[in-house]
Amino acid sequence: MVKIKKGSVLILVGLYVLTIPFFNTLNITAYDNSQILGHFGESTTAFTYSSYIPVFAMLAFLPLGIRIAKQLPLRTMILSVSFLSIICNTASLYTTSIGWFTVWRSLLSILSIIGIFATMIPIILKYNPAFNMAIMYGIMQFILQGSQHIYKYFGTSFTSLHDWTFSVYFLNANFFIGIILAWIFYRKDVAPMKGIFQFDWRGWFLMILLFTDILFLCAEGQTRNWFQDPKIASAVAFGLIIVGIYILHTRFTEDPLIDPDVFKYSNVAIGSFLFFYIGAINGTGSVVSGFMGNVLGFDPLYEARTHLSMLIGIFIAIPLTTYLLYKKIYIGTVWIMGFTCYGLYHFILFFRFYPEISPSDFLAPFVIKGLAIGFLYPTSSLYLAEGIPKKLGDSRMMSGVICRVVLAVLLGSAILGTMITNANIHHKTGLSQQLSPTNQLAEDQLIQTKNVYLHKGMSEIEAQKMAERSLSNQTSQAAILLAYKDIYLVLSAICFLPVLIILLFRLGRRPLGRVEVEPIPI
């Protein structure tokens, strides 16, 4: 039974609130890309790099951020990181080039990593082992998954009042609140987890090289049509060489960044694949965002407001999952519920891809997606950490981050974009071949549209061109909708596949075992 003193509840809430702005440094401008691109007037390729680089900088700094957060006094670190975050965040507003904007955003994302771990340390020390790890992971995922949608909505709302700079000022206000909370809750300026500082600098350098290589693939892969370009093939080969060098490096290092021995634990090997799988099926949200913005013409605020319905599912599923895991339910049961919800989400949206869809039609699918996130994210995080010694804790965490975020979300989204483009071209070619005089429906529509333009005073030639352009635009819209349908129909089958495997092979018919306190549950 978990017992917490009455006065500790307020402290617990305050400590968790302190973590929220650090989790959302990049989420606050998630729907403002078009405004930022227009502000700097750069090419889409340059802007693609500026979007990817802060994320990769954050992930690359992750292992070093863990060590730093354990070494420095907490109060000094939180205050310093908050002040520096305000400076970097504000500096990004006054840059005149996309390069410096990217630099300041990258520094901000690096500072956020230190802030996340520093704010989590007192929670772990104060409420564990009395605070069961299933409950802690549940709360952490509740805050992480819930706050990102709220921050995206608030950021877009403030942007709509003036421009994208308002959302940045909103984040600064959050950091000021963090400074106040740090003065309230951090009474003693100590480093409770401080130890001998040891870090695998050589392994970190190799990881940065690998991330740089994957960054190039994410930014350039689709525009270079992947393996049809020799630079892409060279980048893939270079990445494999780096992985080989790193494996060799671990054999001569006492405490490597990611110890391959961690994969001797079956739950790490399976859990890392599970992280990749969940990241891949969750990454199709970019398809819906493209559908809302490019086909339906939703403005960013409308899109952000529509996505808020996911919070309903998240707020139901994560507390329920936390309770069930705490009560030692079979993990296979939670997996089945999660993958079933993901399958239903993709299958329902398969029938929603048509022009002029009502916003209310997105409510049910998004609630179901929120349920899927709530069932799978805490469970997969706990499963990956089950029974792993503290010495290998950082290794299993980094393996999960690389599988889910780097390979599935970042690289996977770039590959998904190529798949959509290819499917769109295929459907557009097929539909365009039907636009001929033998297609009476197309011919009648062409004549009707042409007559409309003739009545507007256009010449015969101009009316013909405008009518053909209108028909071509309709064909393009139909093609992209068919491409979206293809992706979501395939994904619905991919989501239901684990359910069949779990049932047929009777997997996960046991509760979760012991999970160590460290590393920090992110």
Task: Describe the 3D structure.
Keywords: Membrane, Transmembrane, Transmembrane helix, Transport. It is found in: Membrane. InterPro entries: MFS_trans_sf. It is a multi-pass membrane protein. The chain crosses the membrane at residues 7-26, 46-66, 78-101, 107-127, 134-154, 166-187, 199-219, 231-248, 268-288, 308-326, 333-354, 366-385, 397-420, 487-505. 75% of the residues lie in helices and 0% in strands. It is built from 18 helices and no strands. With 522 residues, the protein is an all-alpha fold. The model has no long low-confidence stretch (mean pLDDT 86). The protein has helices spanning 8-23, 33-40, 44-71, 74-91, 98-127, 133-161, 165-185, 201-220, 230-250, 266-282, 285-295, 300-307, 310-326, 331-350, 363-385, 393-433, 440-455, 460-505. Among the domains are: 1-199, Up-down Bundle (Growth Hormone, Chain: A); 201-254; 424-498, no CATH class. Helix 1 (8-23) runs antiparallel to helix 7 (165-185), helix 3 (44-71) packs antiparallel against helix 16 (393-433) and helix 8 (201-220) runs antiparallel to helix 9 (230-250). The longest helix has 46 residues, at 460-505.
